[in-house]
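Late entry, evening session. Most of the bench is empty. Finally got around to the prediction I had been postponing all week. Sequence below, unchanged from the version circulated by S.P.
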Amino acid sequence: MIYDVYYNRKDSPSFLFRIRLDTKQYESLDPSRHFGSIGLLSARIEAGRTHSPKGRLMKKRFDVTIAGETNLDLILYGLPEEMPVERELLANDFRMTLGSSSAILAHNLAALGVSVGFITRLGSDALGKLALERLTEKGVDLSRVKTVTRGTATGVTILLHHGATRHILTYPGTMFEMSASDLDMDYLASGRHFHLSSLFLHKALQPDLPRIFRELKAAGLTLSLDTNDDPEDRWEGGLDELLGLVDIFLPNEDEARRITGASDAESAAAALAKRVPVVVVKCGKRGAFVQTEDRHWLVPTEPVIPVDTIGAGDSFNAGFLSAYLRGESLEVCAAFGNRTAALSTLRSGGTESFRDPSLVESLFVGER
């Protein structure tokens, strides 16, 4: 039988190769004995069985673990770009959906059939309860969620749509307060892959993130990062150190250019690929630009008529990572990310399309 093996080498994280094993060979596979000569630190079989750094065969509980923020998005449509003060302005539509990059990713990964363990910090309020209901609906494991009964409330984002542009107003709430003390590291290490979004909103967590990433990498997980926007436009917060630890970096085009100072997505990706094995720059209607150390290519997307682009980037991440964990090529991963991003735009907010089983099923037509 053919198995896909993911492993971390000292000089090349997240390399993938394929081997043919019979059942007896599979059961006796030992990293230190079979792969020590190539600097193996840890190995993962696609079937979900993983070798720890000491070579002990163990079962991973989750495909992906995520530590991140949760809030709701309150979306108003049809507002003018110029909004005078002390006037009552009328929107022509309103939606309330699950928001925040981390929660959107967790929800949409689960909708795609990926097992997800999610740690977040919430207030004991109506917004927090609704967010948890939406995540539970898709089967996201919330057994390590931290709910605070006093003090700061669950965050909220208000999005004011002006056609092609929008204002984004966020009350961070509990997302600013989540710290390393809220994280169960054994729980996070029980996944095959760990993802972090919204780096610059994790104010209390930022100082500990390099240590957390190193611990998870040592436990055999692959790591991905999507910084999202930096409201202060400084692009610090330990980003430089984290780029040296992650396996996959998933910025959008504007973020990639701001981080590197480059004038275009291609130049930005080339600069980032000097630090990160796989760089995937989300380019909206153009698709996604993928860059590794020695290869680069643009993966185009099929055009759609969008209802709402909120959460499209997070939905791309869900598609890309779900395909990556199935052992697909990077081109296939990016193509599937393009499809999940496009699907997201067919409904309001970042998760509503993924609550429609018929839409989700359409992603897999011809594959099942």
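Two things to note before I forget:
The two ends are 20 Å apart (CA to CA).
Confidence is low (pLDDT under 50) at residues 6-20, 35-57.
Will write this up properly tomorrow.
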